[in-house]
Amino acid sequence: MLRLKDKVCIITGSASGMGEAEAFAFAKQGAKLIIADQNLELAETVANQIRSLGNEAFAFQVDVTNIIQLEALIDFTIGKFDRIDVLLNNAGIFDKYTNSLETTEYLWDKIFDINVKAIFRLSNLVLPHMIQQKSGAIINVGSIAGLVAKMGGASYTASKHAVLGYTKHLAAEYGQLGIKINAICPGTIKTPMTAKMLETRPTDKIPLDRFGDTSEVADLAVFLASDESKFMSGACIAVDGGFTAV
Ligand code: NAI
Asked: Is 29 in the pocket of ligand 1 (CB under 6 A)?
């Protein structure tokens, strides 16, 4: 049985890395997808590949910091499918471990604009549709940098802690309206964002002694998007090979 059959899912930042893996994993479970990313060329490639597997998928170019473009994304999705079942807020950027004294206000604002405020903007655009449907799932991509320090710089660490706080707020406010809101906290995962850093980094502080694969985060995203997790809300789940347990 397909676990996401006919669920309409928007995934931000799904033209590469974890978002791309999530898009393929969702498609495999029967989801109808909007591949939302600032990189239209890569988004089209992902959407075309998913369509060639027999699933419905559309690429949509959007900068998640631009409210006009986000409104257009929601209008496009409703125009195509007339509903939104899952919003996976995955798009994010890293601050390259910049410590507080070296963090400019420009960097801080940019990191927060993409990593946190975009989730607030999109959630507020999607929630009215989910409230009307009396169902829906929002999944926010946090990080282990939202659970502990030193897995990013000042702005990234603060931004990912904020994602988890906002996730809990949404869960508390909208659960009674039939909407579940959860967060994923990936550990170190091999993606274009981290590829260069991981060339020289040891794995001995990770109990499972390796970095994660994008498919391992995508598996959790499928679970949180599916009805299998229907009693889960406000959860912030680490997929980190045990890193935050020690
Ligand atoms: P990535 O850099 O491989 O992919 C990010 C995608 O987001 C790209 O396709 C990019 O075009 C898109 N994007 C970036 N800014 C955008 C914007 N303003 N508007 C629209 N799209 C935008 O990154 P990766 O590694 O796949 O990360 C995905 C998420 O996972 C991020 O939120 C990141 O913070 C988080 N994360 C990543 C970890 C890792 O080890 N790779 C660990 C923990 C969390």
From this structure: no
> Across all residues in the chain, what is the average pLDDT?
98
110-143: b or e for each residue (b if 16 or more CB lie within 10 Å)?
A: bbbbbbbbbbebbbebbbebbeeeebbbbbbbbb
Please report the pLDDT score of residue 188 as a whole number. Answer: 97
Write out residues in the chain with pLDDT < 50, as ranges: none
pLDDT confidence of residue 116: 98
Domain-embedded: residue 55: yes
How far apart are alpha carbons 20 and 77 in whole angstroms?
Answer: 18
Residue at 201 is within a domain = yes
**Structural domain includes residue 72:** yes
176: CATH = 3.40.50.720
Give the count of domains, the chain.
1
238 C-beta closer than 6 A to ligand 1: no
Containing structural domain, residue 43: 8-245
Determine what percent of the chain falls in helix, strand and coil, rounding each to the nearest 5: 50, 15, 35
> Among 12, 18, 110, which is best to mutate for testing ligand 1, by the most ligand atoms less than 8 A from CB?
18
- Name the strand (E) or helix (H) holding 179: strand 179-186
Task: Tell me what pLDDT residue 229 has.
Answer: 98
- pTM listed for this prediction: 0.98
